[in-house]
Amino acid sequence: MSLSAYIYIRADTLFVRLTGELDHHTSKSLRDRLNSLMMEYDIKNLVFNLKNLTFMDSSGIGVILGRYHYVKQNNGTLIVCEINSQIEKIIQLSGLYKILVITKDEDQAINYLGVA
Amino acid sequence: MFKRNYAEVVFDALSQNEAFARMVVSGFVMPLDPTIDELNELKTIVSEAVTNSIIHGYENKKGKVKMVMEYENEWITLTIIDYGKGIEDVNKARELFYTSKPEEERSGMGLTIMEIFSDEFYISSKIGEGTIVKVKKKLTCSCENDV
Ligand SMILES: Nc1ncnc2c1ncn2[C@@H]1O[C@H](COP(=O)(O)OP(=O)(O)O)[C@@H](O)[C@H]1O
Ligand SMILES: [Mg+2]
User: Most buried of A66, A111, B6, B49 (most Cβ within 10 A)?
Assistant: First the structure.
């Protein structure tokens, strides 16, 4: 199984729903796609929905952290939601819990950001 | 019943083979009936090791990666071998968050993850000759109940 991303924009926030497996191979095209969308649409905040992500290794952490640094430069917020049990351990180990905003689902993320 | 099995696979150091290696290890351990967590940990170990061979060992150039899989009852041994550039300072490489390629958005977690997700972890490397990563993992399965 590879990776697919369903992406939509609401105000200045990019929502990314990931399905499949996020590794070094699949992270390359995801990174390029996110970078160009964020530039083109002047995106401030990013919300990753990981509900249907069945596998993630440290390359996935690298992609999330990379986008976090970009978003932070523009005083934006990066939110990760719907963390499932398959990827919980690796996210815990990465320390992402300490630096990112984690919410239960996209609704909570929308509330947090106040993007109506 | 005593269970023993061995398999090895050699493949090109291409990033699409990261998923291939994960599928191979999943298939190999299937008869042992691992838990979802155990399977996920084994797949993650393989994914990290193979990725390292591709991006660090061969630096995205041509090369071969060899993966050897064995089990003896509930003990699984995985060995991932490359013939790439090797690691200068293995102790430094093993530090959490250390990466020699921060510009490529590496998180420096791979070796630590392999260590945490296994029961025994060994790495040996020689400059110009390559790197061998070996992990042992004990499954919690009650294999005696199987036919
Ligand atoms: N197979 C390998 N060949 C050469 N160098 C390696 C290999 N595996 C790991 N390394 C070195 O060890 C460092 C740490 O590896 P790791 O913990 O997986 O972090 P990352 O891959 O994110 O850099 C790498 O940055 C690299 O310098
Ligand atoms: Mg690595």
Answer: B49
